[in-house]
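@channel anyone free to eyeball this complex?
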Amino acid sequence: MAVPKLITSNGMDVKKGWFDMSSLDYTAKINSSVTTEVKAGAVVHLDSAGTFSLGASDTAPAIFLIQGSTDADVINEGYNLNDVNGNQVIDRATFVNIAVAPTGRISGLVATGGYEIASTQFDSSKTYASGELLTAGNDGLLTNVAAAYTNPIVGVVSSGLGGMSSFGGDATLNHHGLSALSFWTCWLPTDQRTP
Amino acid sequence: MPTQQEVQLLNETLFEQLDSPGMQKQAIDAVNDFTRTKMREDGFYRRIMPPLTVTNDELDRQVDTDKPVKIVDKEPDSPAAVSLPFATLPVNFYIRGPRYRVMFDRIVSPRAVKDVDELRTYVIDIRQVLSDNMIKDMLAEEDSKFMAGVNVAVGPENVENPLSGEVQNKTISGGITRSTLVEAMKIMPKTPSRFEVETCLVNNITIKELMKFGRDEMGGDFSQDVLKNGWAETNFLNCRWIVTIKQNLVLDNELYMFASPKFIGKNYELEPTTMYIRREAYMLEYFAYQTSGGSIGHTNGLAKAKFV
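replying in thread with the prediction:
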């Protein structure tokens, strides 16, 4: 049996700007072409199909996911979802249930909303300094390999790694003992002008 | 239908309750009385799978999530009995029972905002105005989710369902006649579970095809009554018939068939439909929400026929 996932493994703390009734969030399904688990805190954008695709887009504002794609209020998988042709497959040997709810819709905060977020979904091979620009690759992870107008900018590093308190004396870890990157959300699309 | 005088009294009552600090709860209760009745009348999902209330104590805690989950046991299959000669022992089987999980999400109406002074000029039943569209939207969402699950369960048209080994989504030629209807009724009992259809669901266009049945097809005065008075929800073919206006969910000439809910799955309600109302100075805001979850744990109690 697989090791169960820790509730605290992935996610994002919204340190400022959320929640109240006027918070700018958005809800959609994950695009069916995304076959990997999308974790809470990952960067997505609204694609032309009206679904979330991973990573930052040149023109569509970044969205930071509040839930992960396997969270219990997002999906209740009870059968094999798709075969290689994208058809839904129900198999007698593995069928458990078909969910009426939830339906796969997932929520996120829109980068233009003005939040400070601490997310576990970033490229941990990089070092981060306050004031650095952030973008996100197609894996949905934040990275500071970002240049204004060349890459879509989704945030600016605030306090950087760590959380609201250090963990075991390591200031780069959040209170769950995980590495989380703190940043302010913002949105700057790439330069769309034709040279 | 309340009189205009009664309507104004209702509106005044609502405003009085909203005017008094700390009285929002009473206003919410006033609206809830109405919305719950509409919910039972309008959502076909709730009529096919009546919601069961779940309390906190009945939720099953999970290691990997702090979100509400309820685990439901399924009846296990067992090997068939066999005839044996004397002095022979039975074969063993180890008891294992399958289970499935019901998870929950929230259905929320849009939040409406209005200046209360603009509301004063309305002479219609403001409680109904406040809640009607929201509740309809929530019911449509609930029904839509259910039908999406049912369509997965019955599988593609004329393709054998791997769980039952039978076609549970069948195209039947010949239009809607007494004969083709009875053919449709055979789909579900042919599955290994042998369930009989308890509820039929069609849209309000399809039902009119049944209203064309003459005395010889429908039987006696029933034909006369239907022609005279239209189709009222009634037992027909020993089934309860539900007619929906949601033609986007149940298409013309399609018939969905359901066994008793206990053979299908669970529809749990963790938080019943609640109307949140808040007044801040002269601005009024309100929205409705509910927390519910459902799963189809067994697919043999579902069938669909398409008449061509």
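from a first look: The two ends of chain A are 57 Å apart (CA to CA).
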